Amino acid sequence: MAVPDAGTAAADRAGAPARRVARRPGRAFSVTRLPGFGLVAVTVFVLLYAPIATLIVYSFNDAPTISVWGGFSLRWYADAWANQQVKDAALRSLLIASFAAAISTTVATMAALGTTRRGRFPGQTFIYVMINQPLMVPEIVTAVALLIFFAAIKVATGYQGLGYLILAHSAFCVPFAYLPIRARLESMDLSLETAAADLYATPWQTFRRVTLPLMAPGIAAGAMLAFVISLDDVIITEFVKSAGQDTLPTYMLGKLRRAITPEVNAISTALLGLTVLLLTAFFLLTRKRG
Amino acid sequence: MGQRSDGERNVSEPAAVEARDTVKTFGAGEQAVRALDRVSLTIRRGEFFTLLGPSGCGKTTLLRLIAGFESPTAGAILIGGRDVTAEPPNRRPVNTVFQSYALFPHLTVAQNVGFGLEMLGRPMAEVRATVERMLALVKLEAMAGRRPQQLSGGQQQRVALARALAPAPQVLLLDEPLSALDLKLRKEMQGELKRLQHETGITFVFVTHDQEEALTMSDRIGVMSAGRLLQVGPPREIYNRPVNRFVADFIGESNFLPGRVERGAVRLGSGDLVSVPGLPPEGTAVTIAVRPEQVRIGAAGEPGTIAATLTDAVYFGTDTHCHLALADGAEVVARLQSPPSGEIGLAPGARVGLRFAEGAVQVLGD
Ligand SMILES: Nc1ncnc2c1ncn2[C@@H]1O[C@H](COP(=O)(O)OP(=O)(O)OP(=O)(O)O)[C@@H](O)[C@H]1O
Ligand SMILES: [Mg+2]
Q1: Considering its fold, how many domains does chain A have in total?
Q2: How far is the C-alpha of A168 from the C-alpha of A142, rounded, in Å?
Q3: Is A205 on the interface with B (CB under 8 A)?
Q4: Which of A60, A196, B4, B130 would staple A201 via disulfide (CB 3.0–4.6 Å)?
Q5: pLDDT of residue A73
Q6: What is the average pLDDT value for chain A, to the nearest integer?
Q7: Hey, which of B31, B33, B99 would you mutate to test ligand 1's pocket, going by the most ligand atoms within 8 Å of its Cβ?
């Protein structure tokens, strides 16, 4: 976008000002022509990606420090791969994220159906706010609340398993799964379901044959987003987990408290790779069809 | 089911569709909209019935009530003599062609057309055969494997038609199915629809706000305004015997002239007397209506004519519209067939004598 526009902008500056005024309004203003736009854009990109680039580069560093380059090597990946604690944490992370994505997507799908496949109803805005509440409440507040809440349950039942983490993750993933599903449903004309009913489909058949296939990309996108969000969580996990229930992010946090080694870089880079993969799939699924 | 035939009409053959005192109100309290106001209507089996009326008069609402997408606030809907008021759309033997077509974007043309039969649980072989027959009927055999998005507007329209016809419904409901098409395609589809109705023998309930479309296609027309059904009848009757000023004005063009009954004729504002049979009692204020093509122009001063002055002549190709002023300034439009030269031989300001064709004058209530 910015490259061809820069050429036009230069041409415009050279031309008479009167000609620029005569242009159509949509064309007349472009943020890319504001002074300093290029500088700001470059700065933002550098700030965003330079640290990540450094992280990736040093994950391949042969030296045992994270500040001196000692040649290319995959030893930190090998170390991480051989580390049983890392493997356990990674598996736990994937397990929790899978369950959390499945549960939250199911709940979010039902919520999205309930809030979009019908006319406006009283309390609609309130329901939206309720569903999206985890996006607005500070995570640390939710974390403390869950800690206290689950502690009581742990005492009462004696159950110490991963269920708490799965439940907690499922809960805060709901809005992330909900938003793409709802966006998808809102772009779908309600008249398709009306047409199905007109063609003798029962409500269940209508859902199975029309609504579900059409909303499937939204559901997949929601599930992926939920998965990534769960995979990435630190605060709530840190508060809710019992002993020996480290996920990859909390394991890394614990490790960093003691010593900073390129092994953490390697794990981070692997996690980044997985996330990028999933988010790419997410964007492919949600982008508008030409 | 209980009150099958109340012995009103033909007991041996129940009407295709019957609406009884149907009321539909949207919203409640202050903002309540009465979209249908005690509409009673009988649509005969096998007929091409058209609902005609201006935007917002309740045509779509009536169609949606018949299809079952809405339920009436009061009254009943019967299809083939069966009371279906409480039945959901999927249990009513009617299919709809939607204005927006509402084709399933994730299914092919063939799957779209076969959808209804599949939902009815028909065997696959039968579904396939019917789909083929339907696609042949709408001349889309070559498009069977395409998605709706890959079709032109007219082709999508025909898929929507084939999809609605495939389950052989008792009644086909069409909500302004041609309004998205350009004029040429529209004319073509009008013929196509008539042909399909003829070939299938299915009752068509067609919605339009285009009076010409209604007149040329329908067996009978129901004219609606503001939630009410004003008149039901064959096109000729609607056109020549409109029950009130609204219908006369909405269907075609009319000259309306106010007057008063005097000595068995109507005394116009201009002082001229127009004789009309079947008048209300002496002294009643009435309005007479005459179609522009029923106004004859003759020489001024001819006995039995109304004196008028030509104010303007507008050439329309086949026709020329002559705007005339009566003695009191009331305007009358006469539609003349244009002569070969294109000149009617009268200049604005010319004095002429008007006559209304035999039987062409209507006396309207309000
Ligand atoms: N769901 C609804 N809620 C509220 N009012 C409605 C609803 N549907 C229709 N109406 C109102 O009912 C009246 C009749 O609407 P309807 O759609 O039947 O008109 P129509 O004759 O089909 O018009 P058009 O030719 O524009 O399609 C209108 O005043 C409309 O605003
Ligand atoms: Mg309508």
Answers
A1: 2
A2: 9
A3: yes
A4: A196
A5: 86
A6: 84
A7: B33
Could you tell me if A39 and A169 lie in one domain? Answer: no
Provide, as residue numbers in chain A, all residues whose Cβ is less than 8 Å from the Cβ of B100.
189, 191
Alpha carbon dihedral B245, B247, B250, B251, in 10-degree steps, equals -120
- CATH number, domain at A90? 1.10.3720.10
Q: Is B256 on the interface with A (CB under 8 A)?
A: no
Q: Are B72 and B65 in contact (CB under 8 A)?
A: yes
Query: Distance (Å, rounded) from C-alpha B288 to C-alpha A11?
Result: 70
Reported ipTM: the value is: 0.78
Residues A109 and A225 in one domain: yes
Closest residue of A to B70, CA-based? A194
Q: How far is CA A215 from the centre of its chain?
A: 19
Tell me which amino acid residue A3 is.
V
Same domain membership, residue A190 and residue A66: no
Contact B111, B119 (CB under 8 A): no
CA distance B3 to A148: 65
**Backbone Cα Rg of chain A:** 25
Strand residue runs (E) in B131-189: 171-175
Q: Confirm whether A4 is domain-assigned.
A: no
In a domain, A9, yes or no: no
Mean pLDDT of A193-197: 94
* In a shared domain, residues A269 and A230: yes
Domain residue limits at A45: 35-73
Whether A211 and A94 share a structural domain: yes
Q: Which domains does chain B have, with CATH numbers?
A: 6-246 (3.40.50.300), 253-364 (2.40.50.140)
> Of all protein residues, whose CA lies closest to atom 12 belonging to ligand 1?
B35
Q: Does A22 map to a domain?
A: no
CA–CA distance, A181 with B333 (Å, rounded to integer): 60
Q: Identify the closest residue of chain A to B163 by CA–CA distance.
A: A199
Q: B115 and A198: CB-CB below 8 Å? A: no
- CA distances to A2, A18, A243, A281, B52 from A14, in Å: 18, 12, 68, 44, 60
Residue ending a domain, choose from A26, A46, A73: A73
Q: How confident is the model at residue B181 (pLDDT cuts 50, 70, 90)?
A: confident
* Domain end marker among A23, A47, A73: A73
- Global confidence as pTM: 0.77
pLDDT digits (tens, 9 = 90+) for A20-72: 444 455 556 777 778 888 899 999 999 999 988 988 888 888 887 777 888 88
* Cα gap B315→B208, rounded to integer Å: 29
